[in-house]
Every structure is written in C-alpha cells, then in structure tokens.
Design brief:
195 residues, alpha/beta, 6-stranded mixed beta sheet, 46% helix, globular
C-alpha cells in the first residue's frame, strides 16, 4: 500500500513538472519520459536524455543500452524493479543530439524534486554528460568506478558513482569490460554507505 502511494505521488510530481517545464524540447518530443522503477530505491541511475525508442514508449532505457543495463543488473542480482532510472532531461533532443546547457537548466528543478522524493543512498551516473551535470570539472576516464562522497546543493543524496554509459560500451570491447568490472562494485559500495 505504501509503495502504491509512493508511485502515485511520484507520478503527480512528474505530471506537475511536465506542465510547468518551459524547455523548448517539449515542442519536438513525442512525450515526456518520466523516471521508471522503484520510488523507494536505494539506487538511482541517471542518464542524459531519452532516445528515439524512449520517446516512442515514454520509458527510459528501453533500447540496446537498456538491455545491456538489465544484463548488468542481473549480474549483481538486481532487476529494474529494484532500482530507479531517470534522465537529466525528460524530452528527446532532435536527432538524439546532446541537450544544451539551457535545456538542462530548464529540467533541473524536476530532476532535483525527483531525487529528493526518492532519497536514494547512491546516485549512479551513466556517462560523462550525466556526471558533468553535477560535477562539471571531473573527467569520466579518471573517476569511473570510484565512489564520490560530497554534499551538493539541491539534493539530499551524498554518494555518487560515475560509470561509462552502456551505449558507449556496446561498441567498445575494452570499455564494456571496464563497465562490467565497475558495475560489480555496486553491492559492496552500497553496504559501505551510511544512511
């Protein structure tokens, strides 16, 4: 019952932000792509923006990268229902281009409210764009797989784990191995985090 109320409350939060959001991408996207998964998850994964399949279905990470993410979750005995996954920007940029800084800023209050509702122990960045939204000076090649503990304005979560994006790893064998290795660290890191 509590979980169902959480889903309902989170859906209302998404609908309210969709109505208020002034980002220009609303005009070109088919629909908003809300976050998906357990509204009381210990882990939130954050990607950059919806792609073509996500824009069509309204669900994040449903393409090839999402399939690979599901495989990696299974490797640490988790399912999508155990975690929560969202994007910095909730609307697909045309031709899957990177969202602009202005578009990210327009969607930021939505993301902050979403994260503060869920209050995960750990936020995992999927790719450099997601990480640089919170830590603009870091390079993913230097910090992937390393737990970051830092208080940030706007959100309550203090633990962050940058990972390579599953889409990038699909076409690069060595990056795929690195991502799988980094992913295996998640259960141990989660146990280390104090609430």
């Amino acid at each position: 019952m509590v979980k169902k109320q959480c889903y309902t409350t989170l859906l209302k939060l998404h609908q309210a932000h969709h109505k208020l959001c002034t980002v220009g991408l609303k005009k070109t996207a088919t629909q908003p792509v809300f976050g998906d998964g357990n509204p009381k998850a210990d882990i939130v994964f954050i990607g950059e923006a919806p792609g073509k399949k996500e824009d069509a279905t309204g669900v994040p990470f449903v393409g090839a990268a999402g399939k690979f993410l599901a495989e990696m979750l299974a490797s640490i005995k988790l399912k999508r229902q155990d975690i929560y996954i969202t994007n910095i920007v909730k609307y697909r940029p045309p031709e899957n281009r990177d969202p602009t800084p202005k578009e990210k800023i327009a969607c930021a209050p939505w993301l902050y409210d979403e994260l503060n509702f869920i209050q995960p122990k750990l936020i995992i960045f999927l790719g450099r764009h997601s990480m640089n939204n919170f830590f603009p000076d870091l390079k993913i090649a230097d910090v992937h797989g390393i737990l970051i503990h830092q208080k940030l304005p706007h959100i309550t979560t203090e633990y962050f784990l940058p990972l390579y994006h599953p889409a990038a790893a699909l076409y690069n064998g060595s990056m795929r191995e690195t991502l799988l290795k980094d992913f295996k660290k998640i259960p141990l890191l989660l146990r280390k985090i104090k609430r």
